[in-house]
Design a protein that fits this description.
Number of helices: 16
Radius of gyration: 23 Å
Strand order of the largest sheet: 1-3-2-4-5-8-9
Distance between the termini: 34 Å
Structural class: alpha/beta
Largest sheet: 7 strands, mixed
Strand content: 15-25%
Order of helices and strands: EEHHEHEHEEHEHHHHHEHEHHEHEEHHE
């Protein structure tokens, strides 16, 4: 049975997904909600990852690849093919990059706070553990277990900093499923890191990317994060002094200022992208219509397993199809039935439609969804109607 995530959802507008780190829950990043709520333009999604907060752990092995797969499924369930930006911290920063590599056509930008670059600790460049300042008597005034947990990562021990930690980090730490964390630790590597693929992806290279690190972060460091940011031409990198792994708790004002600037860039990029697509659509639709080929119908899954395959591969399928030179329109939309999608396609001529079929049959989408039922009707100007699309059973 698929584990459903505990989710906090706020606002309306362009979606922003928040992905927390290991051993915590959504509350750590919910602390930043004021930045996104300020102009009312963002719909914010704060899920608890499986095994953390209010979300039950995964069944089976529950390793990092499984967590990455489930996050991709959650995004498919929540957002479908909608475009979104992502904010993530710590391990969430690695999971977010893996997610964007899978759904590059949907991504509007990434903001990564103290992100894990490599999950293998021995591969990280780390500074020595440093304590910059300590308010006298603070730790002694706290519950001993809370004091130990707080002091483990804090680089400035102060009442103000402790209160932020108590409200945003401590609940998730106390509520994490110990067995789920053990299983995650047993398989704490992805099959491959996503960063080289992201850097080579032309649809990602020009997106706004923000990477923020703490100068005193002895958990993931700051040098590897600098190297990560250099992979993206439009990335902004900041290593903040007086900050450890909980960088947005240690330097809240600086991180908020960086996020506001990043949001401005995300909004501008999204507007430019929409305008370019509208211009392209208008130009394409102005071409003569007599030779056009159209397809309408439904994609019908037999069970949740098939539906999960559709959600996992759909965004990339839509992106690649819309990029085909002969594609005039392409829409695959969910219905109220979670096993059914409506499909509508228009191609400029029969040759373009046939080329589309050939590409789809050899694609990851075509291979993954080959056995899923299609109830399609194809119409065109030719006396000999085009063959129905490859990729699954199709009604006559």
């Amino acid at each position: 049975m698929t584990v459903q995530p505990h989710l906090v959802r706020r606002g309306s507008g362009t979606p922003v997904l928040f992905v927390h780190g290991n051993g915590l829950d959504h509350r750590l990043l919910l602390d930043l909600d004021d930045v996104f709520a300020a102009d009312g333009a963002w719909e914010r999604f704060y899920p608890d990852l499986p095994g953390f907060g209010g979300t039950p752990p995964l069944e089976g092995r529950g390793g990092l690849p499984d967590l990455a797969d489930r996050l991709d499924e959650i995004v498919g369930e929540l957002l479908g093919t909608r475009r979104f930006a992502v904010v993530a911290n710590s391990l969430g920063g690695l999971l977010a990059r893996d997610l964007v590599a899978r759904r590059s056509g949907q991504c509007l930008g990434m903001a990564l706070l103290a992100p894990v670059v490599d999950p293998v600790r021995e591969h990280r460049t780390l500074p020595a553990r440093t304590l910059l300042a300590e308010e006298p008597g603070l730790l002694a005034s706290l519950d001993p277990a809370d004091a130990e947990t707080y002091a483990e990562m804090a680089v400035v021990l102060s009442r103000e900093n402790w209160e932020r930690f108590r409200e945003t980090a401590l609940p998730g730490i106390r509520g994490a499923d110990v067995e789920a964390m053990r299983r995650l630790g047993d398989l704490y590597e992805l099959d491959s890191l996503p960063d080289a693929a992201l850097a080579a992806d032309l649809s990602i290279r020009d997106l706004p990317v923000l990477v923020v690190a703490g100068k005193q972060d002895d958990v993931v460091g700051h040098e590897d994060q600098d190297a990560l940011a250099r992979r993206f031409p439009r990335a902004t990198f900041a290593a903040l002094d007086g900050a450890g792994h909980n960088v947005h708790l240690d330097q809240p004002d600086a991180v908020r200022a960086l996020l506001r600037a990043w949001l401005t860039a995300v909004r501008r990029g999204a507007e430019e992208r929409s305008a370019a697509e509208e211009r392209s659509g208008a130009e394409t639709l102005s071409t003569s219509a007599p030779g056009r080929v159209e397809l309408h119908g439904t994609l019908v899954c037999a069970d949740d397993r098939e539906a999960d395959l559709v959600r996992r591969h759909l965004a990339r399928h839509v992106e690649l199809t819309r990029a085909e030179p002969g594609c005039l329109a392409f829409h695959v939309e969910p219905t109220e039935d979670p096993l059914v999608w409506t499909v509508a396609e228009t191609f400029v001529d029969r040759e373009s439609f046939t080329a589309h079929q050939a590409r789809v049959a050899a694609s990851a989408w075509g291979r993954a969804t080959e056995g899923i039922r299609r109830d399609y009707r194809v119409s065109g100007a030719s006396e000999d109607p085009p063959q129905p699309p490859a990729g699954g059973p199709t009604s006559p």
